Amino acid sequence: MTSPREIRTEPDKRRTLDELASMVPDGAVVAVGGGLSSREPMALLRALLRRGATGLTVVGSAHGIDVDLLCAGGALARSAESYVGFEQDFGLAPNYRRALESGAVEAADSCCYTLVQQLRAAIQGLPFMPIRSVRGTGFMTLHPEYRLMTCPFTGEELLLVPALEPDVALIHAQYGDEKGNLVIQGPPVADLLFARASKLVLATVEKIVTTQDVQGMPGAVLPYFYVAAICEAPMGAHPTACYPFYGYDRPHTALYHAAARAGAESFKSTYLDVFVHGAASHDAYLARIGGEATRARLASWANGDDAWMNLYRDEAPA
């Protein structure tokens, strides 16, 4: 049975990043917004690690540095993602792979379509959703909760997947207002489904604007009544991209990936202790990655196609 959604009507939902992190209970099922190298709620995830969050389960589609970082920081107990990696740029996610191979994190791999159907079931108040995919794959052994049935109308064999209600959705959007209205520009990935299916929605945004401004903006709008708290966090998705504000920070991601490949202890001393636990706030993190110079460099993609290509080509590590 899915639970009724709380309607969030507080007139001012602005909170600090640490306050948002404190609202994520240990052991929660967490839906992390964004995807791959774009618009992931990295500032909030770093705050979660500084808080010492443990025992989390992550659910999602295709992710990268966000889930890899949570593995390295000891926050995860279970992963139900369809992909975690650094795409064709750097390949496998070292911390994620290490955590799953050691058994520190339980692998409960899923696939994008299954996730979407499970979220849709929760949104519609249904206990399950029938699908045609997954049958004949190894996913059945990872998910004994799935059930086979014979359709009473056609005789076709179908798979039933249970509704998925994450405890918390963590979303980073370009804009929002103090009431919690969010504007997501570019692909929303699964964020709108996450927000509608989850019991609690916590959001960071690049910029808090007026409600009137929100109403005139292009993009997907998530209404205020889904959102419990919001925090303005400029460059809150770094090192993933958040267009139109900034592109993906490839040099920083290369630094991260090299540190992760060097092993768990090395990653702790060269990355976690520097960029997560060694930066006591988001402002301290921004200063550590180069401050205004880094922001301006990553914003230069907007100067045209050549500028955007050069941002990646010229700064590719040797």
Automatic annotation (TrEMBL):
It comes from Methylocystis iwaonis. Gene3D superfamilies: 3.30.30.40, Glutaconate Coenzyme A-transferase. It comes from the Bacteria. The lineage of its organism: Bacteria, Pseudomonadati, Pseudomonadota, Alphaproteobacteria, Hyphomicrobiales. This is CoA-transferase.
